[in-house]
Design goal:
about 160 residues, alpha+beta, four-stranded antiparallel β-sheet, 5 helices, 4 strands, globular
């Protein structure tokens, strides 16, 4: 088991485009379906795996381009340390004072270590100075507990 780190920061409006954050349905729409349904399926099939937007389900980071992986760690302690570093680097831009609180950030990093050590994923999101958003994720791989069918991006 190992862990991959992902980071996305960008306009909140782009993050809110949920159509690009959902995987396509496993089967295409049946013949005669509404044109907008067919178009949504085509768009999702072509763009979901290629876009850098965070997926709605954390495990789906594993199907994104390998270039989006910010780090890979065998030790959950190292993965949690990366997450803590990212929190510290971005905290001055957090929109909420609570999110900037050092005690709260330490709690988030410690909690992440516990979850990663158990083989779970970690996904955190923060509003930044308007209108931006930060998404941080550490995904457990080989296999992923919630989506064992997803292949590891680095193997």
């Amino acid at each position: 088991m190992h862990h991959h780190g992902f980071l996305w920061s960008g306009p909140k409006a782009r993050f809110d485009d949920e159509a690009l954050r959902r995987p396509p349905h496993p089967e295409p729409p049946p013949a005669g379906s509404r044109p907008e349904l067919i178009q949504r399926y085509r768009e999702a099939s072509a763009e979901f795996a290629a876009t850098d937007l965070p997926p709605l389900e954390t495990a789906y980071w594993l199907v994104k381009p390998r270039s989006l992986v910010r780090g890979t760690w065998d030790d959950p302690k190292e993965a949690a340390a990366w997450l803590a570093e990212q929190l510290g680097d971005h905290a001055p831009r957090f929109a909420s004072g609570w999110d900037r609180d050092a005690t709260h950030l330490t709690f988030l990093a410690d909690s992440a270590f516990v979850r990663l050590n158990l083989g779970a994923d970690v996904s955190l999101g923060f509003y930044l100075e308007r209108p931006s958003y930060l998404s941080l994720a550490v995904v457990t791989c080989s296999p992923n507990r919630s989506r064992a069918d997803l292949a590891c991006p680095s193997r």
